[in-house]
Amino acid sequence: MNKLITISVMLSLMCSLAACKSENNSQTPSPKNAADIWPKLNSAVKQDPQVEAQVKQILATMTLKQKVAQMIQPEIRDISVADMRKYGFGSYLNGGGAFPNNEKHSSADDWVKLADDMYLASVDDSLDGSTIPTMWGTDAVHGHNNVIGATLFPHNIGLGAANNPDLIEKIANITATEVMATGIDWVFAPTVAVVRDDRWGRTYEGYSEDPEIVRNYAASIVKGLQGEANKDFLSDNRVISTVKHFIGDGGTLDGDDQGDNISSEQELFNIHAQGYVGGLTAGAQSVMASFNSWQGDKIHGNKYLLTEVLKKQMGFDGFVVGDWNGHGQVVNCNNESCPQAINAGLDIFMVPTDAWLPLYENTIAQVKDGTIAMSRINDAVTRILRVKVRAGLFDKPNPAKRKFSGQSDLIGHKSHRDVARQAVRESLVLLKNKKHLLPLDPKQSILIAGDAADNIGKQSGGWSITWQGTNNSNADFPGGSSIFAGLSKQINAAGGQVELNVNGDFTNKPDVAIVVFGEEPYAEGHGDRASLDYQQGNKRDLALLKKLKAHGIPVVAIFISGRPMWVNAELNASDAFVAAWLPGSEGDGIAEVVLANPDGSIQHDFKGKLSFSWPKSAEQTTVNYGDLDYAPLLPYGFGLTYQDENLLADNLSEQVELNLDQPQRTMLYTGAMHKPWEMHLFSGEQEIAVNSNSHQLNGLTFRTVDREVQEDSLLVSLDGNQLSGVKIVSESHFKEDLNREFLADSTISMLIKVTSKPSDNVYIAMNCEGFGDDPGSCNARLDVSSIINALAINEWHPLSIDLQCFANMGIKFDSLVSPFSLESAGAMQISLSEVGFTPQPPEQATISCN
User: Fold this and answer.
1) pLDDT, tens digit, for every residue of 675-720?
2) Do the beta carbons of residue 329 and residue 320 sit within 8 Å?
3) Helix (H, G, I), strand (E, B), or coil: what is residue 200?
4) Tell me, what's the pLDDT at 767?
5) Before 797, cis peptide (omega within 30)?
6) For residue range 42-88, what is the model confidence (pLDDT) as tens digits?
7) Which of 251, 339, 792, 850 is 20 to 30 A off residue 701, Cα-Cα?
8) How many CB atoms lie within 10 A of CB 724?
9) Closest of 168, 257, 170 to residue 214, by C-alpha
10) What is d(CA 744, CA 220) in angstroms, rounded to the nearest whole number?
């Protein structure tokens, strides 16, 4: 193995490092009185004097350590049962991709055992003196999606198209049941984001661009999870719900995940707060703070919104929980210390990784020195205890003995899957149906093609077993059905012929083809896009559709996506087109709509209507019902039935309007890294993040230097004696869409000065998705040694590389994790400045591959 030093520019891990902080510390403008905009809500759950007395009594017996422990929520990968016994955390969670025993295929009994062990440790007072029961929170966002065999419902975008609040309440109730079968108390749902820019990678977590649908759904989900006040509220049949993410996550600039929402306060209420009006009025007991900023201020540290608006004006008396180390993004905070968040109104730190212990210790110290008032701690713990008492956690038996615990037959129960199939049927939106091609006669010869046809993981999307929904096979969804499985079952039963060929090849020409295709699974951060152009620059699925059309075969397109996308060309190439969104584990629900009964009668008609406007161009990313210039391809509320005549012809414009005429430079480094990128140094197995103007790491010296202005460049010195090593990039790092730069014929460019020429090869490299799966599938590095060695010493020189060079080696520019790295195993001293993507004719680049 060669010796290797890597200077790598990478996306930050969940923006969780201390360096990832808001750059704007301005005070958020607010009205003179919150009541000018925000209403006083009439929650269905009223304060009970007996509950309040019990909470007060418990609080009076607690030490400061016990109180702060209630405010710490670690993750199951980072704590042990012994830690729970020692500290008595008020809650804990399993993040996406976390499982008991770190085993993806853990059984329901495994989940219950961990819940039971943690609970019993929390009420064991032998070490911490506390008998307050802990609670387990989980992201069950479309069913109990972390558990093998669970019923996975359509993601929220599909449920919004169904627009059936009663069905939504039933889905929430089923989700609660399957969650309780694994011993868990608390669900981080519903998400009530009102999405304004569909490039956002969490668009599918939003029910609609219409705040009214979101408001109504929030109430239904909360009632389905928690039960209704004065009926079975938080009974043995229910779990605690969380309305999230407060507030404005769906309205960030350019759809940037964890970005800045610059809405006026009135817009913040009118558009982004309606889900809280619905959910909190129904009695939701917890609210999750959002990663995003509002007018430059991180929500986790925004006292006006968390305390003055949410708690005081709107009257919310439950607790506010943070999101995954979100407190570390507040100005002057990090993951291990953030009194600002507590003072702003955060009640529970969600603190995965090993940062929980220093955060616990620092918070105690900050109370003792007066940085955090004891009254604020008491208020937070009162809220936590109030919810625990209301939920009956002090009275319920340990998780293993609860009503549904360990009943593995409830996980994916047939009755639950029946409801999920109904949800699939009602979520489908028919966009095109030439000559009433649908419903199809199942007695025909039918070819089924496309890489999503027999892929339950792809049809389920993100938050499906794993966080990003990747690295799953059909075997990971026992009891579920792929779209192909549902279609083939009915076609075979009717006496028709069915053939599956992903590439659309066939032996005997079929009567009709069904092509199932769409977006690959993704979740937050990784799903952000630069435009809505589907398969920009690589129209593989369009080629498949055209291939079948060229044979004179009628084509039905089933489109899997987490957002509306610009698919004009795909629409033109299809005779019928169905927006299926992300239907979840019950793919056979699609066959129940697109296939007729053997006698030709309709099984189920299309009911779904667009809850998101469909764009007419790739750049129409913020088209929303009610806009003054509203002009989508298909409007909010559109959706054909079998009785309707087709409206879309085959002549939709396929002109790509990406505004590449005057492309701009996209900078990575100009003396400091440009967000969302940050610089890491690697030597062997050692890694550090660059967060100061000088670093040393195992034979590597880094420092900032002056080129034209102070510290506008960097100098790296390598001694050539480093340990053997490889480039390490975490799978958890976000991907960025830089396909626009590639299509604009940009180069990766920089200024470079060689002080000491290299003694070994020098490489410039890029990395994108694929790490862990197949690390070689999307990594590329180019040997620039001859260029470097030819440069005059101690002079600045421009160096540019045609991006086609990296594309030829497999780089996907729509999913870059590391857009630039400099690698060498030898001794050298080199300076860099002005690193970025520059529009430049390829033939003018220092290295051209066109």
Assistant:
1) 777 788 887 777 777 766 777 777 788 888 888 877 788 888 888 7
2) no
3) coil
4) 85
5) no
6) 999 999 999 999 999 999 999 999 999 999 999 999 999 999 999 99
7) 792
8) 11
9) 168
10) 47
Tokens of 560: 């899997």
CA distance 310 to 302: 11
Instruction: Label each residue of 65-127 as H, E or C.
Output: HHHHHHCEECECCCCCHHHHHHHCCCEEEECCCCCHHHCCCCCHHHHHHHHHHHHHHHCCHHH
Query: How many Cα atoms within 13 Å fall on the side-chain side of residue 436?
Result: 10
DSSP string of 754-791? EEE--SS-EEEEEEES-TTT-TTTTEEEEE-HHHHHHS
Per the DSSP assignment, residues forming a β-bridge with 137 are 93, 186
Count, residues in the chain: 850
| Cα separation, 602 vs 532, whole angstroms | 34
Task: Identify any residues that bridge with 595 across adjacent strands, giving them in sequence order.
Answer: 440
Q: Contact at 8 Å (CB) between 184 and 138? A: yes
Pairing of strands 297-298, 242-246: unpaired
Alpha-carbon gap, residue 756 to 394, rounded angstroms = 69
Cα separation of 800 and 777, whole Å? 24
Residue 308 is classified by DSSP as: I
Which one of 117, 210, 256, 323 is the catalytic residue? 323
Q: How many CB atoms lie within 10 A of CB 529?
A: 27
Q: Do residues 486 and 590 make contact, with C-beta atoms less than 8 angstroms apart?
A: yes
- State how far the Cα of 3 lies from the Cα of 825, in Å rounded to an integer: 5
Whole-structure pTM value: 0.84
**Does residue 524 have an active-site annotation?**
yes
Dist. CA 324–CA 318, nearest whole Å: 19
**Residue % of the chain over a pLDDT of 90:** 75
- Tell me the two tokens of residue 444: 């025909």
pLDDT of amino acid 658:
54
Token pair in block for residue 654: 């396929």
Q: Which of 524, 592, 736, 834 is catalytic?
A: 524
Q: Please, how many CA atoms are within 13 Å of residue 737, restricted to the half-sphere of its CB?
A: 21
Establish whether the linkage from the previous residue to 775 is cis, with ω within 30° of 0. no
Distance of CA 289 to the CA centre of its chain: 15
Determine contact, residues 693/703, Cβ cutoff 8 Å.
yes
Nearest-angstrom CA–CA distance, 654 and 716: 48
